[in-house]
Amino acid sequence: MKTKLIAGIFLACLSASAFSEPLQDDSTPITLKLNDNSVVNVTTCEDFIALRRAGKTVTEFGNMPDRFASMAQNSLTDCYLTTWAKAQGLTEVNPPPATLTISDVVKHFPATAAVAISDDEVARVKTHYQNKTIIQKEPDLKADDMGRLISAKSSDGYIITGHRAFKGQDGKLTDFITLGKFVTGGTWSVSTTYRIVSQNEPVWKIQEVTENDPL
Questions:
Q1: Widest CA span of the chain, in angstroms?
Q2: How many other C-beta atoms are found inside a 10 Å radius of the C-beta of residue 185?
Q3: pTM
């Protein structure tokens, strides 16, 4: 009993430590505009979750280039996932199983997860590539020596920038993939996190996860 109590205290301390660690590597605050039009700075996961629990959501990242805003958003999404998993009673598998590759992603993720820079392109993909995968939209994707898949025709590419897996009490794993998407002829890039809901069909069912999802 005493051993279990000590172990519980140790895990609680680890959890508290993770929440109090800086969201960004250089410890700089992230400036956020919220749904009530207020502007705040958050430095730790604990700061951000306190805002979410108070009913706030993020509408903008203050004065940050797209690349840095994407990195900041990824940090908040990771913070959200840690909190969500704890609330669901899930245990993180670290490191996650090395079974999902970028090749798996483009072969099975729906085309709606493909690179789309403009609203018109998003609408076109939804119309013309229903029940199709990324590789069916961009069949010329080929691996490079940086672990990416590149389309010469579309001048874009993909890479897995994050993978987290959580195990439930029933032993079932839930995978979250952060997919980096970019253009090869410019500076545009974005990372989006997806929950893999089902792999039962050739086109997997996925759900986008953001920092504003319900806790």
A1: 63
A2: 7
A3: 0.87
In terms of phi and psi (left: phi > 0; alpha: psi -120 to 50; beta: otherwise), the region of 63 is: left
Q: Give the pLDDT mean for 164-178.
A: 96
Residue 205's H or E segment, with its range, is strand 205-209
| All residues at 6 or more sequence positions from 77 whose CB lies less than 8 Å from its CB, including other chains | 178, 193, 209, 210, 211
User: Counting every residue, how long is the chain?
Assistant: 215
Paired with 158 in beta bridges are: 149, 181
Phi, psi dihedral angles at 78 (to 5 degrees): -60, -40
Q: What angle do CA 196, 25, 183 make, to 5 degrees?
A: 55
Beta strands, E only, 101-204: 142-143, 149-151, 156-167, 173-183, 189-198
How far apart are the C-alpha atoms of 99 and 118, rounded to whole Å?
32
| Phi then psi dihedrals of residue 23, to 5 deg | -70, -30
Is residue 159 within 8 Å of residue 102, measured between CB atoms?
yes
Per-residue pLDDT tens digits for 16-25: 445 667 888 7
- For the stretch 133-155, pLDDT in tens is 999 999 999 999 999 999 999 99
